[in-house]
Amino acid sequence: MSHYISITESERAEMLKAIGVADVAELFHDVPADLRFPTLDLPAALAEGEMARELRRLSSKNSDVLNYSCFLGAGAYNHFIPAAVDSLLRRSEFYTAYTPYQPEISQGTLQAIFEYQSLMCGLLQMDAANASHYDGATAMAEGAIMAISATRNRRKIVVAPSVHPQYRGVLRSYTQGLGVTITGDENPAASVADAAALVDNETAVFIVQSPDFLGVLHDLKPVAEQIHAAGALLLMVTNPIALGLFQTPGMVGADIAVMEGQPLGIPLSFGGPYVGVFSCTEKLLRRMAGRLVGVTTDLNGQLGYVLTLQTREQHIRREKATSNICTNQGLMALAATIYTSLMGKTGLRKVAELCYQRAHYAAKAIGNLAGYEVLEQGSFFHEFVVRCPRPVAEITQALHAQGIIGGYDLSKDYPHLGNAMLICVTEQNTKNDIDQLVAVLGG
Amino acid sequence: MHTYEPPIFELSSPGKIGAALPDAGVPETELPAHLLRNDDLAGLPEISETEVVRHFTRISQRNFCIDTGMYPLGSCTMKYNPKIHEDAARLPGFAFIHPLQAEETVQGALQLTYELQNILAEISGFDQVCLQPAAGAQGEFAGILVFRAYHLDRGDDQRDEVLCPNSAHGTNPATAAMVGFKVVEIATDSRGNVDLADLRAKVGPRTAGLMLTNPNTLGLFDENVHEVAKIVHEAGGLMYGDGANFNAILGIVKPGDVGFDFMHYNLHKTFTTPHGGGGPGCGAVGCKEFLADYLPGPIVALKEGQYTRHTPAKSIGRLKAFKGNFGMFVRAYTYIRMLGAAGLRSVSEHAVLNANYLRVNLDNIYPVAYDRTCMHEVVLQGKIKGAPSVHTLDIAKRLIDFGFHPPTVYFPISVAESIMIEPTETESKRNMDAFIAAMKQIAHEAVENPELLHAAPTTAPVRRLDEATAARRPILKYDQAAIEALLSK
C-alpha cells in the first residue's frame, strides 16, 4: 500500500464486509478471468528521497538556459519570469482544482480566467478571447476551422510560408479529414504579398504571422483590406511581447488573432505546457471553440463569474459542437494573467523595448563579422536571420562548448536561405552575453 | 476569507509597475514609427507586485480544491496530487530547456520521455506510445485520425462512420465529427453494457471504428468487451479505447489484451498531474504495432546509447508545436516510478473499493442507475422518495454547504437526474463516511425542508449564480459600465 492511500487494513476489512465481498479481488469479476491481474514489468518502486536523486540526475544531463546563455527562439522564448508568478501558481487552491463546473466554489479560477480574457483582449485589441487553447499552433488550426464554418461554402485556406513551419504542420493535421485545400506556402521563398495574391472568392481565410517565423514585422493593414475585399477572413498569428510595442491584430482589422502565450511568464519546459491565446471579433464570438467565462450576479445581487455560452460545447452539442476541445490551459492562462498584471502597460512596453534594442545591437555586431550576413536590417522585433559561413549545426556545436545555446538551423524549413541561423535575443541576454556570442562566432 | 475581490483593473493607478526590469545597456536603435501600436496599451492595468500578490492570493481563497477537501467529480479522477511532482517539474534541467535544443544537450529529458513511453505501453498492453497530445480530447483526435489514415492507406475508403455508445463522453462524437466522420450512436443494454443487438445492426462496411470507454461512464466494466471488439473487428473496424477511466484498471487488466487497438491516457487523471483549474493535461496515446506507423510525432527512440526523436513513416502529422506537455511527463513519470507495479494495482483496488463502499451505503436512498458491482465510480440518481421538487442540482449545491465538492451531475446524459461519484483511492474511510452522512442528511432535508436545498449553497463565497443572464447578455471582458449596469439591475 502506498503512502497516498489513507485506509488501514482493518478499515478495508470493514468496507469489504459492508460491500459483501471477502476480498478486493472479487470486485473485478466483470473483467475476463484469463486476463485479470497481469504481471506488470516495471522498475522497482522508489522512495521519495531515491526518486528525488534520480530526477536530479536526469535533469542535470540537460543543458538549461539558466546555466547557458540562450539565443534560441523559433516559437518558444526565454523571457524573465518574476518570482511572484510561480509563487502564486503553486497555491494549491489554483493548481489542484478542476474545470469550474460549480461556479459558487470556483470563483478564484473563474475570476482569473475572466481577467485573462480581458487582458488578452487589451493586448490584442480584439473583442473576445476564450479561456485558452493547448498552444499557439492548435489555436491557429482551430481558428482556420472556425473561419471555414463562418464563410460557409469556402473551403480554401491560404497560408503565408513565413508562418511557423510547425504551426503549418498542425494546420494540415487538423484539417486532413475535412476536404479543404491549403495553399500559399509551397514555395518557402514566397512573400506575404505573393501568398495573399492567391486569395480568391473560394478562400475562407488568409493566415499570416507578424512578427513572422523569421522575425520580420509586417504592416498588415493593406493586406487585411485586400483579404476582406475578397470576402475572406484574416487570421493573424502574433507574439505577445511584440504587442508591447507593435501593430496589433485589432489595429490591422484581423478577424481572428492567435498567439503562443508562453512568453507571458511560462517557462520553456521543453515545449510544454504552454497556452494558446485565441481571440476574434464580436461577430465571430458564438462560433469560437473552447471555454468562456462571463460576469453575472448571484441570488444576493453580488458580482460573480460563470462558464458561459456552453451550448457551443461538446458536452452539450456532442457531434455538432464547434470543436472537441474540452480542457483549457487553466494554470498556464493563470500564469499569463499574473505576468501581464505584474508587467502592466509600462512593463510590457519595457520588455518589448529591451528585446528590440538588444536584438538590434546583436544583429549589427554579427552583421559586422566577416562571413556573416544579417538578412533583414530594418523591421524585425527580437529575431533575425543570419547567413553563416558554415553549416549551422557545426556552429551551434562550437557555441555549446562555450556555454551558449545557438540559434535555430533554418536549412531544413527554408533551404533557399542556405546556411542560415535564426537568432533570438530577449531581455534575458545581457550585452555581455551578446558580446560573447559575437566573439565566439567571429573566433 | 470570502471577501469580495474587485477585478484587477480596479486596482490600477497610473505609474505603477509590478516588476523590476533592467536598462537595455546597449546603443539605441530607432523604432519603426509606422509599425507601432496606437493605444499605449490602454487595456492593461498598472499595479505593484504587492497588490498583484494580494489580489491573486485572495481570489485563490474563493476556490475549492483537492487540498481543501473531497472532490468526487465522476470521470475526472480528482485524486491527491503528490507534492514532489511540483519540485520535480521545476528542476532547472526540466523547466528551463528549450524544445528545439540539439538532442545531445537534452539527453536526460529524452530519456525520461522514452522511459515513460515504455512504462505506459507496459501498463496498457500496447506496442508503441506517443506522448504528444495535449489533452484527452486531442488523444482521441489522434486516434481517429490514425484510424482514417489506416483505412485509406489500405484503399478501404468507404468507411465514413464512427460508432459511439450513448454513454460516451461528448468529446467522442465531437472528435469523430472533427475528423469528418458520421457519428452513429449505439444503445446501452439493461446491464449498462454496449447493446450487442444494436451494435450488430449498425456495424458494417462503413464502420471505421468504435469508441469505447471501459470501464464506461456508467461506472461499469463492459462485460462483453471481448464480444464488442470481435464484432467490430470482423466488420473491418478498429477499437478505440477512451482512457478517461483507466484509474480503475491499473494492474487489473491491460486494454490491449481485451481487444483495443488504440487508446489515450489522461496523465492528469490517472497519473496525478494536477488539473490546474482546467488544464494543462496530457492525452498520451498508445497503439498496437500495426497502427504505430501512423502515430503523430515526434516519438523518442534509443539508438546506440543515444536518445533520438523521429516521426513515424506514415504519420498523421504533428498535433501541436514542439513535443507535448513535457512538464506533465515529469510528474506522471515520478508518480509511476514511486508506486511501481504493486503500487499501481493498489491504486485501482482502492479506487474501486471506495466507489463500491459509497454505492452500498447510498443506493437505498439515491437509486443506483445499474445495480452491479461498480468500478471506480458509481452513478446514482437524484430522485429522493417524497421530495418531488428536489433535483440533482439542488443536492449538488447543498453538498457544498457540507464542505464537499459536488459530484458530476447530469452526466451521463443517458441516466435521468444522474449523480456520478468518483471518490478515488486517496480518500479515507473517515471522509467517505462524512460524505455518506451528508448525503443522508440531504435526503432527509429534501423531504422535511426542501427550501433548504433550493437555497443552497449558503456557505460559499457567492450564492447561486444566474447563468441564464450571463449567456443572454455576455460580458466576456472587463467593461466597467456594463458591470455597473448589471449590478444596478
Automatic annotation (TrEMBL), chain A:
The top EC class is oxidoreductase
Query: The Glycine cleavage system P-protein N-terminal domain covers which part of the protein?
Result: 3-441
Can you state which reaction this protein catalyses? N(6)-[(R)-lipoyl]-L-lysyl-[glycine-cleavage complex H protein] + glycine + H(+) = N(6)-[(R)-S(8)-aminomethyldihydrolipoyl]-L-lysyl-[glycine-cleavage complex H protein] + CO2
**What Enzyme Commission number(s) apply to this enzyme?**
1.4.4.2
Q: Which residues form a coiled coil?
A: none
- Keyword entries, A-Z: Oxidoreductase
Q: Name one Pfam family in it.
A: GDC-P
Fill in the subunit field for this protein. Answer: The glycine cleavage system is composed of four proteins: P, T, L and H. In this organism, the P 'protein' is a heterodimer of two subunits.
Its job: The glycine cleavage system catalyzes the degradation of glycine. The P protein binds the alpha-amino group of glycine through its pyridoxal phosphate cofactor; CO(2) is released and the remaining methylamine moiety is then transferred to the lipoamide cofactor of the H protein.
- In which family does this protein belong, per the annotation? Belongs to the GcvP family. N-terminal subunit subfamily.
Name-wise, this protein is: Probable glycine dehydrogenase (decarboxylating) subunit 1
Q: Which organism is it from?
A: Herpetosiphon gulosus
Task: Name the gene for this chain.
Answer: gcvPA
Automatic annotation (TrEMBL), chain B:
Which EC number(s) does the record attach to this protein? 1.4.4.2
Q: Where is the Glycine dehydrogenase C-terminal domain?
A: 348-447
Gene3D superfamilies, per the entry: 6.20.440.10, Aspartate Aminotransferase, domain 1, Type I PLP-dependent aspartate aminotransferase-like (Major domain)
The UniProt catalytic activity note for this protein reads: N(6)-[(R)-lipoyl]-L-lysyl-[glycine-cleavage complex H protein] + glycine + H(+) = N(6)-[(R)-S(8)-aminomethyldihydrolipoyl]-L-lysyl-[glycine-cleavage complex H protein] + CO2
| Keyword tags | Oxidoreductase, Pyridoxal phosphate
Co-factor requirement: pyridoxal 5'-phosphate
Q: Which CDD domains match?
A: GDC-P
Q: Which major enzyme category is it? A: oxidoreductase
Residues bearing the modification N6-(pyridoxal phosphate)lysine: 269
* Pfam families hit by this protein: GcvP2_C, GDC-P
Parts forming coiled coils: none
Question: Where does the record place the Glycine cleavage system P-protein N-terminal domain?
Answer: 29-304
Report which superkingdom the organism of origin falls in.
Bacteria
Briefly state the protein's biological role.
The glycine cleavage system catalyzes the degradation of glycine. The P protein binds the alpha-amino group of glycine through its pyridoxal phosphate cofactor; CO(2) is released and the remaining methylamine moiety is then transferred to the lipoamide cofactor of the H protein.
Q: Which family does it belong to?
A: Belongs to the GcvP family. C-terminal subunit subfamily.
Question: Subunit arrangement?
Answer: The glycine cleavage system is composed of four proteins: P, T, L and H. In this organism, the P 'protein' is a heterodimer of two subunits.
What is the recorded name of this protein?
Probable glycine dehydrogenase (decarboxylating) subunit 2
Q: Which organism is it from?
A: Herpetosiphon gulosus
Provide the organism lineage as a comma list: Bacteria, Bacillati, Chloroflexota, Chloroflexia, Herpetosiphonales
Gene symbol here is gcvPB
